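Feature request, filed as a ticket because there's no other form

It would be nice if the structure record came with a short human-readable summary line next to the tokens. Right now we just get the raw output. Example of a typical job, pasted below so the devs can see what we mean:
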Amino acid sequence: MANPHLSELESIFSSIQTAGKTISNLVRRSTLTGNTGYLMKQVSMFKVKNKKKLDVITNNVLKNALRFTGRMGVLASEEEDAPVEILEDLTAKYDHDILLERTSGQYIAVFDPLDGSSNVDAGIPTGTIFGIFEDPNAECGVLPDGTMLDECLTATLQPGSSLVASGYILYSSATFFLFYVGAGTHLFTYDEHIGEFVLTNPDVQIPSRGKIYSVNEANKPYNDQPFQNYIDRLAKGTGRAQTQYTSRYIGSMVGDVHRTLLYGGVFAYPADQKNKSGKLRLLYEAAPMSFLVEQAGGLATTGRHPVMNIVPTNVHQRVPIILGSKDDVQEAIDEYSKFDPDTDIYQEAFK
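Raw output as currently delivered:
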């Protein structure tokens, strides 16, 4: 471990890679084992909540892997809704949002256990996203009435600039594990013959400019005008690079960002008229991925504000995002600067 004061993260990363191996196997065998489709849960007389089977299973796998490290003070998952003590009945805790562990652990983990799970039944790449915060002063617990102590929420609602580590595991043609933990962004590939992740791309650096943009173009008529202008120029080759870009969009953030990191270019999920705050969750997706991209030499923005500087106000807050090669993202930022901020669809970052 390059930074001695982060040596306690070794056991956390060991647990994450173990969980990643398990999830990789679950994803690859999901069609054979019947773990495709949805689980239906009756939440009231008139409402049924559908969740992907693999969302529930992978959430449990990653939570169990992290809780037994003894290093975690708080776990927050994209898949859940309300706090519960870890000492409570194990079968009940998975209906909740922030899992509290009464240990001396000083780290807070936030994660999306299976990003892109809506595509998993079709064999399209999926992934696990995680971020690690440090807060040795957080005193976490749940009051007798079931409410969470304010200190716990404060420990969890930190900006991306406070992350000490983040990463993702991509389940695709191979299983890839990319992370940053104090000294370079490194990419490992899972070797199924020896059962270990092997370093294949040390110190990944995103090119300063690419030739690919990754965005859901069906939403473009409903995006901000500066974003529409920006994409039009990339598609026509009239942007600063004077090169016609190619459109590549998987619809799974981990897969799209992975390609962007290796080849350069830009990935974006901006605000639109239907999703006025964007669609990606700040705490579980946008901040950890922005941290990785910026550590690899790229940029991440809402168009107006650095994603890394936004302090979450709730655990499921959404945010628009444009990230990727430094020159490509800066071009988008400069286009937004030509327009009055009051005309933007997204108005929430720094109210």
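Something like this underneath would help us a lot:
Residues 42-48, 82-96 have pLDDT under 50 and may be disordered.
The first helix runs from residue 9 to 28.
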